[in-house]
Design goal:
The complex is a heterotrimer. Chain A is of the alpha/beta class. In chain A, about 30% of the residues lie in helices and about 20% in strands. Chain A has an eight-stranded mixed beta sheet, sandwiched between helices. Chain C is about 35% helix and about 20% strand. The chains are: A alpha/beta, B mainly alpha, C alpha/beta.
Chain lengths: ~375, ~325, ~350
């Protein structure tokens, strides 16, 4: 197994992407909630994804980050059309696929592939690795040169598995190796876009890096575009040139990774970044802001009006409850760095004069004198 | 909770109606003149006409069906007299009101069920819990082994053996028979004891295995471990935490078993020559006695639906996640 | 395996007794496939008011260790050897009754997933009050008042009404707060937290970690904090123990271990992990291969099949001789101190920029 993949990471902001591969506009997915009496009827909706705009250029890697319930996975499933959108438009290579039927989707299906989080449940335990990787080709009636088996062996080699393992079953592999099988399966149809939904979250740290490097190799050598969905901000920063931050079904900030990670404007992005525990490998004192929100993410069934983050935001004012902030380029932001906030923060992550601590328990314990 | 109950009851009524309709029309696919069947030996065409009119068989099938269904709610009048609600019609075979025949047989079925239930719940859950508590020990192995052997027995196998030993050979006991509880409780008990025990043996074995396996599963739950990590006594953890979670699967199966038993334990009744609902059902379908078959089916369906609702209520009682969602 | 030296596990030299100390702990499970050596000669100490972080990947034996501390392992399939001493009391040989008195009282645990670790059948208040009543003999009413007090302390809004809620009515973060309240209700001297924030969102994780730190200040408990997340450990721990394949491979203060690590496995962990402040030009350097099966752990140093530096040790010592872990700041590796220093500065440190 060639585990010693070490590749240079991607460089800074992507040069203005030459060609838009995927364009998502106003994408919305509401899951109905039923209840009522005596006849059950729709009483509300989980607004899983609400009016999301997103573009992915050819060969580009876009990261989608956010906490549970932010709709990042749903967005991924909408784009791969595993779910039917409630509203909005998904355009792939200039073609509107938002409500395309199975048949209309057929040519596109092979070009958009998905990699799932759990390498244990996403592979059929009764099929050999060869069959698993081959099946997308069979389903789509694709006959590569030299036959499907040869292609499978090439793919196994590409993802760093022994081609001899063609006839083994998934349970004979470790978690990291299974995720490689998942990658090989996704690559079987020569896709142009891979939607990777938390592809490394279930893996141990040392294995995570192997898979991240593999995905990077795939992206760079084969020129495949990625929509990389993850909750781990550091992994996303490492893998994606552009990053979109989601909160309760909406994109609150999007931009190139340097802008998002070093010059964030949305308070939620600030809070998220400041919450990531960092290993201090150097002796210097940390210069990071400390923001501790109160409580958990509210339910997407009845999301707050206006700006959805306002209930946990330290800058919220009346305007935030009344007006949905548009996702726009703020003054001082780089090209393509858009923020949806009425009262944006300073573009820095350096420590503030005073920490922002909204959690009542923490305030009580840290500052007993106060209220 | 009230909303839930009302909704479920409405649903149950709809299902009973559908079952009634299904059985009714299915029966009419049999190419048979029911009036003729009902008429008996010395039958004249005039008699048949009279019977046909009395039973309403001269009317179209659909209106017969509506009459039948309406009778359940309002009662009906026949030449035998007024059949009060819930009227399930008149037997073609005996001319009795179906409801009366069912009421006649039901005490036996109820006695059989309840007596067996007490025994198998007590022994089955008790030995299952014991095996789970003593998991891996000789006790557990003995209990589990015995329950596997016993659960592979059948009533028609075990019944005659028990009868042979206790009734025919040694004469310690009389043949099982039904005495109404209200008249002589002791005789009631003595008469039923053999069927109870035989039936309960097989159920006990099943409940032992189920109680043991669900308990062992529950004992591995994380919240059970948390309870131990808090320093709660093992016995407390066992009965308060693990047992609570085991109740759900047990209640589920119990509901299914009870409704099956209440709508007639055919094999037990035949094995011990007892005339309960199960017997009535089999006899009526052999004689193509449509009203009785329908009546027994609806009666059974009623128990299945009621017990379903009871089981759901039990879930709500056991598990606050069900109650509060 | 029989040839391996047992120097690592030799009983601690006489010295000031630690508040909580584990000596040469060996935990074996018998499974259908054979004997799993989940923990193999582990020793560590924790002082009052300090936090020991134990970091390792899945299967490293970090969680098993802490279940055995309280005797929560399955005694039928598990054998435990060695010493676990809490405040002068031996726990490996303690009876179930003695352990019951300690659990939830002197030693409390917080588990990873508060949804499954709290019983769905009883109210949060009852679950918090139970150990308090048991260990302090408090009445129902007193225990309820105490539960409300604890809920307030951990930051549950409207504790007076929420005390009667069931865990499923709480959000993920609130459940973990309730779990912490339950663990701290008897004011324990030692708190064992097993991946307490792994199931939580990052902003909630930050709140919970700070809460634990603040509460430790107030309660003065010792904490054993188990996690796979080096970032979390860096935030929480005073001292650090890195575990691999059931053994401690490196020990020291958290700052020492993270800033100048000495074991190739620790190097591997640090350089395979992307960091927010890391350089974007720096590729990740994963550890090759996968963690070993604990049924058949590698001979000698368990890390040698994945180690890039075993070649620098003369002969086949890495494959045959188990490197001992010395006292204090130490790494269980055959490389000489000089080699470790050079390799770290030349090859590893540049990757951590």
């Amino acid at each position: 197994m060639s585990d010693e993949l070490t590749l240079p990471a991607q460089q800074g902001p992507a040069s203005a992407s030459p060609e838009v591969l995927l364009k998502v506009q106003g994408l919305t997915k509401h899951f109905p909630v039923y209840g009522g009496f005596p006849i059950k009827r729709k009483v509300g909706a989980v607004q899983a994804v609400d009016d999301v705009d997103l573009t992915v250029g050819a060969g580009e890697s876009v990261g989608l980050v956010g906490e549970s319930g932010c709709g990042k996975s749903t967005t991924g499933r909408l784009i791969t059309r595993l779910l039917e959108p409630t509203g909005g438009k998904i355009e792939y290579a200039g073609r509107d696929i938002s409500h395309a039927s199975r048949r209309q989707l057929a040519p596109v299906r092979s070009e958009i592939q998905m990699i799932f989080q759990d390498p244990y449940s996403s592979l059929n335990p009764r099929q050999t690795v060869g069959t698993i990787i081959k099946s997308p080709m069979e389903v789509n009636g694709i006959d590569p040169k030299g036959g499907r088996d040869k292609k499978v062996r090439e793919l196994l080699e590409l993802v760093g598995l022994n081609p001899e393992h063609f006839n083994r079953f998934p349970h004979e592999f470790s978690g990291g190796q299974r995720q490689r099988i998942g990658v090989a399966r996704a690559l079987a149809l020569n896709p142009k876009l891979i939607v990777a939904d938390e592809p490394v979250s279930a893996l141990d740290v040392s294995i995570q890096a192997q898979v991240v490097n593999l995905l990077q190799k795939v992206q760079q050598e084969l020129g495949i575009a990625f929509l990389f969905i993850a909750h781990d901000l550091a992994v996303v920063r490492h893998f994606s040139q552009r990053v979109a931050v989601m909160y309760l079904g909406k994109v609150v900030e999007v931009g190139d990774r340097v802008s998002i990670y070093s010059r964030p404007r949305h308070p939620y992005t600030h809070a998220l970044l400041s919450a990531v525990p960092e290993v201090s490998t150097v002796d210097e004192p940390e210069d990071r802001e400390r923001i501790r929100l109160a409580g958990d993410v509210p339910s997407p069934i009845m999301p707050p009006s206006g700006c959805r983050f306002r209930t946990r935001c330290w800058k919220a004012q009346d305007k935030c409850a009344n007006e949905v902030p548009p996702l726009v380029r703020l003054e001082g932001n780089h090209e393509g760095h858009l923020t949806a906030c009425h009262f944006p923060e300073e573009p820095t992550t350096a420590a503030r004069d005073e920490d922002i601590v909204l959690d009542p328990a923490l305030t009580a314990l840290e500052d007993p004198g106060k209220d | 909770m009230l909303q839930f109950l009302v909704r479920r009851l409405i649903g149950a009524c709809v299902i009973i109606f559908l079952i009634g309709a299904f059985t009714f029309f299915l029966f009419y696919t049999i190419p048979q003149d029911f009036a003729e069947l009902s008429c008996g030996r010395n039958c004249t065409p005039q008699n048949i006409e009279v019977i046909r009119e009395n039973l309403g068989l001269d009317k179209p099938i659909t209106s017969q069906f509506w009459e039948f269904m309406a009778g359940i709610v309002n009662g009906r009048d026949f030449s035998q007299g007024h059949c009060s609600a819930p009227c399930l019609g008149v037997s073609f075979d005996t001319g009795e009101f179906v409801w009366d025949s069912i009421l006649d047989r039901f005490p036996l079925t109820l006695s059989l069920t309840l007596g067996g239930l007490v025994i198998f719940l007590f022994l089955g859950l008790g030995s299952g819990l014991l095996a789970a508590w003593k998991r891996g020990t000789v006790v557990d192995k003995a209990v589990s082994g015995a329950s596997i052997v016993l659960s592979s027995f059948q009533i028609y196998f075990l019944g005659p053996i028990v009868l042979g030993i206790f009734v025919y050979q040694s004469g310690i006991m009389d043949n099982p028979r039904y005495e109404p509880f209200t008249e002589n409780p002791i005789a009631w008990m003595v008469g039923m004891i053999i069927p109870w025990c035989v039936m309960a043996t097989i159920f006990t074995a099943q409940y032992t295995r189920m109680a043991r396996s669900t308990m062992i599963e529950q004992l591995q739950e994380e919240h059970v471990r948390t309870a131990r990590a808090k320093g709660m006594k093992q016995r407390y953890v066992f009965f308060r935490y693990a047992w609570r979670g085991s109740l759900i699967p047990i209640v589920t199966i119990l509901g299914v078993d009870l409704s099956a038993l209440l709508s007639g334990a055919v094999v037990t009744e035949f094995t011990f020559d007892l005339a309960g609902i199960g017997r009535l059902a089999v006899d009526s379908s052999l004689t193509k006695d449509l009203p009785v078959t329908m009546g027994v089916m609806l009666f059974g369906a009623f128990f299945i639906l009621i017990l379903n609702i009871v089981v759901d209520l039990a879930y709500a009682y056991i598990d606050p996640r069900v109650r509060l969602s | 395996m029989t040839t391996s030296t047992r120097t690592e596990g030799t009983p601690a030299p006489t010295g000031p007794e630690s508040f909580f100390s584990v000596r040469d702990l060996r935990v074996r499970f018998s499974t259908e496939d054979g004997i799993v050596k989940a923990v193999d000669g582990l020793s560590f100490d924790v002082e009052r008011g300090r936090t020991l972080g134990i970091v390792g990947e899945s299967g490293s034996g970090k969680s098993v260790t802490n279940l055995t501390v309280l005797g929560l392992h399955n005694p039928k399939t598990t054998t435990v050897d060695g010493e676990i001493v809490l405040d002068g009391k031996e726990l490996v040989t303690a009876t179930e009754k003695e352990l019951e008195k300690l659990r939830g009282n002197k030693v409390a645990m917080i588990f990873q997933d508060p949804l499954t670790a709290l019983s769905p059948y009883y109210t949060v208040g009852r679950q918090i009050a139970e150990p308090y009543m048991k260990h302090t003999g408090a009445s129902k009413k007193e225990a309820r008042a105490r539960a409300i007090e604890m809920l307030t302390k951990v930051g549950i809004p409207q504790p007076r009404s929420r005390v009667d809620d069931y865990p499923h009515q709480f959000s993920g973060g609130m459940r973990q707060r309730a779990m912490i309240a339950m663990a701290l209700v008897c004011d324990p001297d030692l708190l064992i937290a097993d991946e307490p924030t792994t199931a939580l969102d990052v902003t909630v994780q930050a709140q919970i970690l700070d809460l634990l730190k603040d509460l430790q200040q107030e309660f003065g408990s010792a904490i054993v904090f188990i996690t796979h997340d080096l970032g979390v450990i860096s935030d929480m721990a005073d001292d650090l123990l890195v575990m691999y394949a059931g053994r401690a491979v490196e020990r020291g203060s958290a700052a020492e271990v993270l800033r100048s690590p000495r074991h190739p496995y620790t190097w591997g962990l640090l350089s395979s992990m992307p960091r927010l402040g890391g350089s974007l030009d720096q590729p990740l350097s994963p550890i090759p291969g996968s963690p070993p099966s604990m049924l058949t752990p590698p001979s000698g140093c368990p890390f040698h099949p994945r180690c890039a530096f075993s070649g620098e040790v003369g002969g086949d010592r890495c494959a045959t001789v188990r490197p001992p872990l010395g006292e204090g700041r130490a790494a269980a590796c055959h490389l000489t101190a000089q080699q470790k220093q050079t390799i770290f500065i030349d090859k590893i440190q540049p990757r951590l920029r």
